[in-house]
Structure formats: structure tokens, C-alpha cells
UniProtKB/TrEMBL annotation:
PANTHER family in UniProt: MALEYLACETOACETATE ISOMERASE
GO molecular function, one term: glutathione transferase activity
A GO biological-process term: L-tyrosine catabolic process
GO (cellular component) term, any one: mitochondrion
PROSITE patterns reported for this sequence: GST_CTER, GST_NTER
Cofactor(s) needed by this chain: glutathione
Keyword Transferase: yes
Family per similarity comment: Belongs to the GST superfamily. Zeta family.
Superkingdom of this protein's organism: Eukaryota
Naturally occurring in which organism (per UniProt): Mesembrinibis cayennensis
Compartment annotation: Cytoplasm
The enzyme's E.C. designation: 2.5.1.18, 5.2.1.2
Annotated keywords: Cytoplasm, Isomerase, Phenylalanine catabolism, Transferase, Tyrosine catabolism
Name of the protein described by the UniProt record: Maleylacetoacetate isomerase
Length: 210
């Protein structure tokens, strides 16, 4: 497998966690979202992913983009360890939380949107994350065990940790979100979350390395 990604991209991080949890080794092709006006806009990368976004994964003779589509494919083809519960209600809750983050929070504060916001980008990002986290905290109070849904790591957790890292980068006050904070802390103790961390990637700049 070949993963096209960027060390700081939360969407790339979700996929790195899934690959690590499932024990899938891969080669990384870094795509720097800021360098050269954004390497994702190159003709070479557009041939890999016409949407010009990371991540993209070449695996089993196909090329997939969109982090949840990639994770779902890995789940279908390499089901251990399971990232979606067998119970239909829990499975729906996992997908709901993942979609909440992937559709309702992250796109509003990604690189392309923040470019449009100019000087207001920090305030905009903080507000988008805070609105999303208020809802997420409420949801997790009904679904969480040790992790987002019960006591098993799921696709929801793969989405949560990178989003909390974004919140911290944008200096969002995490005090109102104790459930999110606790789950995030527990997940960061797990090896798959450590090895996939943005501070430990081949393309991480020296000053940001762990």
C-alpha cells in the first residue's frame, strides 16, 4: 500500500491510525499542503485524487480517497481488529459520531476554508470547533464507555483524536468538554495512536518532532 498524506492533516491521521491498528505496513508519499502553493494542486497528485485532497491510499490494485471510505474498505477487507461494532445500534452510534466530526466540524476549519477567512481564521476555527464539541460532548455522555462508544476502539475514536489535536492547535478551551478530554487522553496512550501521531511522521519538520 502507498499512502499519500500530510503529517498534520487530521484526515490523513485517521487513516494512519487505522493502518496501525490493523498492522498494515505501507509506504508514505508526503504531500505538503503548504509548500509550493500546495503540492495537492500538482498535476501529478490530481491524477491520484481529482479532488486534490489528502489522504489517498493505493491498495489492492485500487486508489481510494476520503478517509472514511478508506477506513471502511480496510474494515471490509481486514476485519481484525474490528473498528465497527457488530451490534447495529452501537454501529450506528459510531458512524454518527464519525460523521459529526468528519462532516460537521473538520471541513469548516481545514486549510482551504481558513485561507478564505483571512485575519479572522483563528476566531472562525475556534467557533466552529466549539459549536461541534458542545454537541459531541452531549452525545458522548450517552454513548461513551472507556472510548467514544463503549469500551472498544472504533472508527469514532479515529476521528476524535485528530480533531482534538486541531482544537488544541487553535487554542480552543477544552474545559467545557470533560468527556472528550478524558477519552482523548486514554486513546493517546495506545500504541497505534502514538506511532501515527503528527509529531512522529517521516515528513514532520524537525522543530515539530516528538
Amino acid at each position: 500500500p502507498i499512502l499519500y498524506g500530510y503529517f498534520r492533516s487530521s484526515c490523513s491521521w485517521r487513516v494512519r491510525i487505522a493502518l496501525a491498528l490493523k498492522g498494515i505496513s505501507y509506504d508514505l508519499v508526503p504531500v505538503n499542503l503548504l509548500k509550493d502553493g500546495g503540492q495537492q494542486f500538482s498535476a501529478e497528485f490530481k491524477a491520484v485524487n481529482p479532488m486534490q485532497q489528502v489522504p489517498a491510499l493505493k491498495i489492492d490494485g485500487i486508489t481510494l480517497s476520503q478517509s472514511l471510505a478508506i477506513i471502511n474498505y480496510l474494515e471490509d477487507t481486514r476485519p481484525n481488529p474490528r473498528l465497527l461494532p457488530q451490534d447495529p445500534k452501537k454501529r450506528a452510534q459510531v458512524r454518527m459520531i464519525a460523521d459529526h466530526i468528519v462532516s460537521g466540524i473538520q471541513p469548516l476549519q481545514n486549510v482551504n476554508v481558513l485561507k478564505q477567512m483571512g485575519e479572522k481564521k483563528m476566531e472562525w476555527a475556534q467557533n466552529c470547533i466549539a459549536v461541534g464539541f458542545q454537541a459531541l460532548e452531549q452525545i458522548l455522555q450517552h454513548t461513551a464507555g472507556r472510548y467514544c462508544v463503549g469500551d472498544e476502539v472504533s472508527m469514532a475514536d479515529l476521528c476524535l483524536v485528530p480533531q482534538v489535536a486541531n482544537a488544541e492547535r487553535f487554542k480552543v478551551d477544552m474545559a467545557p468538554y470533560p468527556t472528550i478530554t478524558r477519552i482523548n487522553k486514554d486513546l493517546l496512550e495506545l500504541e497505534a495512536f502514538k506511532v501515527s501521531h503528527p509529531s512522529r511522521q517521516p515528513d514532520t519538520p524537525a522543530e515539530l518532532r516528538a
